[in-house]
Amino acid sequence: MGGGLIGLACAFELGRRNIDCVVYDRDPGRTASASYAGAGMLGALAETFPDETWRSRAITSAKMYPAWIESIGGPIDFTPSSDLLDGHVDPRDLLRELTSRVRLIHREISSLDELSSNPRILCTGAWQLPGIPAVEPVKGYIIAWDHLPVSIIGGILRDGHTYILQRNSGRVIAGSTEQRIGFDQSQDPAFLSELQSRAEALLPALKDAPPAAHWFGFRPAAEGDVPVVERLDERTILAYGHYRNGILLAPWTAEWVAAEVQRQLGKRSG
Ligand SMILES: Cc1cc2nc3c(=O)[nH]c(=O)nc-3n(C[C@H](O)[C@H](O)[C@H](O)COP(=O)(O)OP(=O)(O)OC[C@H]3O[C@@H](n4cnc5c(N)ncnc54)[C@H](O)[C@@H]3O)c2cc1C
Question: How confident is residue 15, by pLDDT bands cut at 50, 70 and 90?
C-alpha cells in the first residue's frame, strides 16, 4: 500500500528476489507524495537522526545508493558523494524509473483488511489508515531555479535549516520549512518569501534569477520522529514515518522489508 519512494523501493527489491507483488496508490502520478516533493539529499553524516541505530542505518543506506541506482538503471539525476555529506538524487527520476519496473495499480485503500494478500506492506507515508500507530504530516516548502550556470554550487550549501543543491540538469533547489499544521493545502507567501530570503543570503547569485517553481510536501513523522519499519502482526509489515530522510533511507528500508517477506514466505513453504 502506497507507491511513494518507500513502497516502490520495496516492490522493486521484492521483484529482484522473484517475489511477485502489486503496489496500490490512489494518486497515479504520486505528485502529492513526500517523495515527489523531496530535495533528495543523501548526506547521512550531515543529517540529524532520532538515535544511533537510525544514524547507522542511514549510513548503510547512503553507501548502498550507487549500486542501487545502477541496479534500477535508466536516466536518474544522481550525484554520489565519497564523504557521506554531499550526495543527492532527483526523487522524481527515482519515482518514474521505479514505477516502470513494478506493477502499480491506481486504487485507494481505506482499511488494512481490504487487502487479502499475505504479507501486506503499509507504505502510505504521512497518511494514516485505521489501526496503525500515529503519523503526522510535517509540511515543507521547496523553491527551484532554472537557467543558472551549471556548477554554480559545489556540493550542498547548508546554514541551519536552509540548504541549496544543484541537480546535474542545472536546476537549483532550496529548502526548507517545517510546519505541523495537518494537510494544509494553502500556499503561504510569507513562508515562501522567508525561505527565498534565506536561500539568497546563502547564495547571492539567486537574486539575479526569478524562481522557476515552488511546491510543498508532507513529511511523514511518527512518534518521536522515529521511522516505523517493523512487523505489526503476522500478516502486516509497516514501513512509514521516514520523516526528513525517506529518500536517503529507501534502499535500506527496501532491503529490510524484502528480507522480512522472504523469511515469512520461506517459513510458510518450509
Ligand atoms: C520539502 C521536503 C524535502 C525533503 N527532503 C528530503 C531530502 O533531502 N532527503 C531525504 O532523504 N528525504 C527528504 N524528504 C523526506 C522524504 O521525501 C520522505 O521521507 C519520503 O519521501 C517518504 O516516502 P514514502 O514513500 O514513505 O511517502 P510518500 O512519498 O508520501 O508516499 C506515500 C504514498 O502513499 C499513497 N497513499 C497514502 N494513503 C493511501 C491510501 N489510503 N490508499 C492508496 N494510496 C495511499 C500516497 O498517495 C503516496 O503516493 C523531504 C520531504 C519534503 C516534504
Answer: very high
The predicted model gives 204-233 an average pLDDT of: 97
Ligand 1 centroid–CA 265 distance in Å is 28
Whether ligand 1 lies within 6 angstroms of the CB of 123 is answered as: yes
CA of 205 relative to ligand 1 center, distance in Å: 30
Global pTM value: 0.98
- What is the reported pLDDT for 116? 86
Name which residue sits closest to atom 27 of ligand 1, judged by CA.
125
To test ligand 1's pocket by mutation, which of 81, 127, 142 has the most ligand atoms within 8 angstroms of CB?
A: 127
Please report the pLDDT score of residue 270 as a whole number.
66
Mutate to test the pocket of ligand 1, among 181, 187, 219 (most ligand atoms within 8 A of CB): 219
Beta strands at 157-159 and 162-166: parallel, antiparallel or unpaired: antiparallel
Measured in Å, residue 266 CA sits from the centre of ligand 1 at 30
Question: How many residues does this entry show for the chain?
Answer: 270
Average pLDDT of the chain, as a whole number: 96
Tens-digit pLDDT profile for residues 156-201: 999 999 999 999 999 999 999 999 999 999 999 999 999 999 999 9
Q: pLDDT tens digit string along 220-270?
A: 999 999 999 999 999 999 999 999 999 999 999 999 999 999 999 998 776
Q: Is the CB of 178 under 6 A from ligand 1?
A: no
Ordered structural domains, the chain, with CATH? 5-269 (3.40.50.720)
Nearest to 38 by CA among 182, 217, 211, 162: 217
Is any ligand 1 atom within 6 A of the Cβ of residue 217? yes
